[in-house]
Amino acid sequence: MVTPPPPAPPPARRSLNHRWLLVLPFIWQVGLVPVVNDVSFAPLNIPFPMCWQLLGIVATSIVVGVVFRLDRRAGVEREEAEFLAATEPAGHTAGSRPDRGPQR
After folding, report:
1. What pTM was computed for the model?
2. Quick check: 63 and 21 in contact, CB under 8 A?
3. What is the 3-state secondary structure (H, E, C) of 29-51?
4. N or C: which end of the chain has fewer CB within 10 A?
């Protein structure tokens, strides 16, 4: 009788601490409103709180881009692809849509 090979050890846990960077836009947009609301400086005749919100949109885009790249470096995309392949229903191909037939 042949014994089955031992199961593979679980993959090493990657650090995803960089996702804490996603808290910065929240602090920018919500946490600092009381501080920014009383500023009378108006660049280009735009109220400072509005400029603060516009800069917050740019800062949020940068932070999300940085986290995306750090996730990619940590192998999150590969892990997600493996998960999707393992949970794909039988008979389902990558290019077909079960509710509407094949994509065009």
Report:
1. 0.62
2. yes
3. HHHCHHHHCCCCCCHHHCCHHHH
4. N
